[in-house]
Amino acid sequence: MNLRAVDLNLLVALDALLTEQHVTRAADRIGLSQPAMSNALGRLRQVFHDELLVRTASGMQPTAHAETLREPLRLVLRQIERVFEESGPFEPGRATATLALRLSDLLAYQILPPLLAEIGRTAPGISLDILHLAPTHTVDALERDEVHAAISMSLEHSGSIRFEPLLCDRMVCVMRRGHPMANQGMTLDRFMNAGHLKVSMSPTDRRFVDDILRQAGLSRRVSLNVPHWLLVPHVLRRTDLISVMPARFAGAIDGDDLVTVEVPFSSAPFEWRLYRHRRHDGNPAVNWLCERLRQVAVELA
After folding, report:
1. CA 9 to CA 11: how far, in whole Å?
2. Which of 146, 168, 179, 233 would you label with 55, given CA atoms 20 to 30 Å apart?
3. 28 lies in which domain range?
């Protein structure tokens, strides 16, 4: 195909159409009129020799060929965006960009307040899009260029993704101050007999407690399993449940009504890591964000 004969603005229209699956909403998404978007869809159908979107009883649906275009189209558009982002010097005070960062709510609770304070002071035009993804989805998002950076731990990834240590941490046990075990001392028997509040987003969340116990032939009693960390302190304050969590988060939520004790078994320290794809090595905005994250980590440490 001769690219000179194709209006590359049509790719932006196609991305909007595949995202919204509705001509009017797609037009609003990129600031076109509805007739202009309808015209763009007609031209796209000619370029790809395919209907791309077809009307059904439940609305417009992408064709099989359109589905195959979705991921490569997003990659192409992001690569084009990077050409313009990296074409000149990065001036934080004048820059306008939205950067996607993978953070769990546990990490966001600790990292976002100082990070946003720094952005507000030095780069008010920078916006953050925070995504909470499971580990395997985090790797996929980095590979597909859906996030610019991620903070997680022990991700299994290809050589196209680089990482660096950011924060050291360890696991501790937290309970309400009036809990029967708060003044008795934590033993393995007491730990196993207690009701546990567990946080899990994916199978890898077993590794710091359940996998260790299983190796010893033990299984704790999980009374409540939730997908989000910010529920934990509210539940602990009103129940006799206990929860194992990273010590840094325990320190962030600690107060007069919560008590932190050591876990009654051997648990090795671990590190939170900063991950990014090598495609962004020359992206000054991503480099700037990563440097701000390093500064926040130093402050937290």
Report:
1. 5
2. 146
3. 3-85
